[in-house]
Amino acid sequence: MKTFWAATAAFTILAAAAFGGGWPDGKKVAVVLTYDDALTSQLDIALPALDAAGLKGTFFLTGAGLKPETIARWRAAAAEGHELGNHTVFHACSRAAYPAPERYTTETYTVDTMLTEIRTMNAVLTAIDGKTSHAMATPCGAHMAGGVDYLPALRQSGMIKYDRGVGGTAGDPLDVPSVWFAGKATAADMIKAVEDAEKTGGMVVFGFHGVGGDYLTTTTEAHAEFVAWLEAHQSTVWVAPFSTVMDAAAKK
Ligand SMILES: [Zn+2]
To answer: How far apart, in whole angstroms, are the C-alpha atoms of residue 132 and residue 124?
Structure first.
């Protein structure tokens, strides 16, 4: 996982302004903050920063990454308005992405086994937050299973309404582009991505892994400074969970 993301996080993939203007309360741009892989640094550092600013984020959890002792904390985050999302059970990616046991690579999956896994993770999330519908983020932003694109079957299943990709496909709610800032990235880099999206009245989805810890880490300082900027710019910048923003985008 680290190898793959170190390569993609080194540069930013700017989200296309796939969805036009017209955000609630006349806001000029929609910003979604997403955090992947159920990492403890997100609970310890990212969540308190968001809570202090009164902002809500989206946390894409994997079943295998969930630590039993953190379940109550994820549940509490959901109860206070953060969104929990589906990042599958085993976070299968292609063999080329990072070293993993063969059975957890997407080459060994079929569309059916992947959809079963997504359904299973939805059930886990419902057990945590009580909600019957969950957004998803495709592991590694890829959506192949055994050489077949599983997005058409996922779309047809109706299990997932919104799915965050990485490079993404402009205008497709099941492959929403995202931007990533880790390592030496600064708050100024993140703010620029918001300002770029604001020029087109669009939306920008941020992806994070560790914050001040774990891996592919965004520094505590850069994250805190960015969150403070978002809080200070709420008259024009709308920060909301992924599904909330996607619902609003769908109405436009
Ligand atoms: Zn992930």
So the answer is: 11
**CA 247 to ligand 1 centroid distance, Å:** 23
CA 40 to ligand 1 center in whole angstroms: 14
Per-domain residue ranges of the chain? 2-251
CA of 235 to the centre of ligand 1 (A): 32
CA distances in angstroms from 143 to 153, 216, 241, listed in the order given: 11, 21, 22
The 10s digit of each residue's pLDDT in 73-105 is: 999 999 999 999 999 999 999 999 999 999 999
Distance from Cα 44 to the centre of ligand 1, integer Å: 18
What is the whole-number distance in angstroms between the Cα of residue 130 and the centre of ligand 1?
A: 23
**CA 106 to ligand 1 center in whole angstroms:** 14
Report the Cα 90 to chain-centroid distance in Å. 16
CA of 239 to the centre of ligand 1 (A): 22
CATH superfamily of 2-251: Glycoside hydrolase/deacetylase (3.20.20.370)
Count the residues in the chain. 252
Give residue-wise pLDDT tens across range 119-147: 999 999 999 999 999 999 999 999 999 99
Nearest to 55 by CA among 80, 29, 73, 38: 80
Rounded distance between C-alpha atoms, residue 204 and residue 151, angstroms: 22
pLDDT at 251: 84
| Tokens encoding 229 | 């900027």
